[in-house]
Amino acid sequence: MSLQEPSGLLSGDRKESEMSSFSLAPPPEVELQPGKPPILHVEPPGDASSWAAEHRDALRAQVAEHGVILVRGLGLREADQVGAVFAGLAGALMTEREAFAPRRTHGPGLYSSSAWPANQPMCMHHELSYALEVPGLMLFACLSAPGQGGATAVADAERVLEALPTGLGERFEREGWLLTRNYNEEIGASLAESFGTDDRAAVEHYCRAHAIDFAWQPDGSLRTSQRRSAVVRHPLTGRRCWFNQIAFLNEWTLDPEVREFLVDIHGEDGLPFNTRFGDGTPIGEDIVQLLNSTYEEHTRREPWQAGDLMLVDNIRTAHSREAFTGERQVLVAMAEPQRLSDWCPTPEASRR
Ligand SMILES: [Fe+2]
Q: How many angstroms separate the CA atoms of 149 and 119, rounded?
């Protein structure tokens, strides 16, 4: 089926006359340009959610081929409309757990982008790569485009892995990575925002069930640590992907002034989040810079336009949020949960 058919490009007699050759219709025209994600231009449909449901398989095929597809022309304007489009494309949406920054909820599984200072980039990452159950698919919709910057940029995780120094990649592949978190009320997601509850027993139950080591601190705050695979095999292609948040959540990715401020207040071990090698060794600033520059070399970006939709294979493709000015409203959903232990056991996960 052509992606353009129900959108009204073919109408009236012309549509009738071309139906006989419809099965020979060329594949949808996807704009492929260096440095940009693939972009599919469509005519504004009468009903975006019906369009999405009808073209689900074709769009998903594009995601399977490219790892990401930006759809321009749908004219998405309202959260309810976006929720219906996302449901048509992905079915049930996931409820986020272990968020590292607060989000506003617009509906079941439909969220605002993470609250994060507009002038600070969110570096490349794979959503919830530290969870045992991770989204296979990310869905983004732009309701309001920022003035400058603010792209949700993408990077191919297979290429990033190939580009890393062999020894470094092998070490992370062997040891995995460690995420440490300290929950407090001032910065990052609160206990309730991360776990869906601030009940101690329920939080402890969640941690035990999800291979997270935890310790309540004398002031009543929670410190956690979890070890995860840094390199995983894609569930469909079997290819190895650099899949983690080692760089993004590391202290050396923070703005130097912000890092200094946080270390002054909370101490070296009290940062809201930090990452280490899987054996617990700190990761040097030079390595974090290397990871971020490798991402930068593989980054593709296209500025958001209001109404855009973007689908991202969360295993194969990392995403970021660039610094911006102006009003930016991007809605986010996660779908198609994948259990890491099903296809790439971590030492912790397989212990259970
Ligand atoms: Fe993200």
A: 10
